[in-house]
Design a protein that fits this description.
Helix content is about 70%, strand content about 0%. The chain is built from four helices and no strands.
C-alpha cells in the first residue's frame, strides 16, 4: 500500500469513528419501555476496533514519513511540518491584508477616518510567495505519497 492510499484510508477511518461516536450517543438513552435503534455495546465494540486500526495506520504513516527522504536535507515528516507552517503563515498574512484594507464609507466629515498601518500590496506579495512555496512543496509531497510504500 502506498502512503497516499493509507492517507485515504485514514480519512475514511476517522469519518467512520465519528459516525460511530454519533450513533452511540444517539442510542445512549431511550424513553422507558422503548429499545434503542442500535445496540450501544455493539457500536462501542466496533468503535474500539476502528480506533485500534486507525492508531495502527497512523503509526505506520508516521514511521514511513520519518523514514522517507524528501530531499538531501529533509525527510518527508520535515516537509510536512514545513508545509503546515507555510499554510499557517499564509493564513495569518491573508487575515492581516483583509484587516488592513481600508474602505471608507463616510457620510459626513465628522466621521472617523481610518488608515492602514501596514502595506497591503507588500502583504499580498508575501501571501503570493507563501502560496507558491506551499504549492511547490505540496506537489512534491503528493508525488512522494504516490511513489512510497507504507512501512510495516
Amino acid at each position: 500500500m502506498r502512503i497516499a492510499e493509507a492517507l485515504i484510508l485514514r480519512a475514511d477511518s476517522q469519518k467512520r469513528f465519528e459516525q460511530l461516536k454519533s450513533r452511540i450517543s444517539g442510542n445512549a438513552k431511550v424513553q422507558e419501555g422503548d429499545e434503542p435503534a442500535e445496540n450501544p455495546r455493539d457500536l462501542i465494540e466496533e468503535m474500539e476496533r476502528v480506533a485500534y486500526e486507525l492508531q495502527s495506520l497512523i503509526q505506520r504513516i508516521n514511521r514511513t514519513n520519518s523514514a522517507t527522504p524528501y530531499d538531501d536535507t529533509r525527510c518527508l515528516s520535515d516537509a510536512l511540518a514545513e508545509r503546515d507552517v507555510l499554510m499557517l503563515r499564509r493564513g495569518a498574512y491573508s487575515d492581516l491584508a483583509k484587516a488592513a484594507s481600508v474602505t471608507q464609507a463616510r457620510t459626513s466629515r465628522s466621521e472617523v477616518k481610518f488608515k492602514s498601518t501596514v502595506s497591503v500590496p507588500e502583504t499580498q506579495e508575501r501571501i503570493d510567495a507563501l502560496s507558491k512555496a506551499y504549492r511547490l512543496l505540496d506537489s512534491g509531497i503528493q508525488e512522494l505519497n504516490w511513489k512510497t510504500d507504507l512501512v510495516g
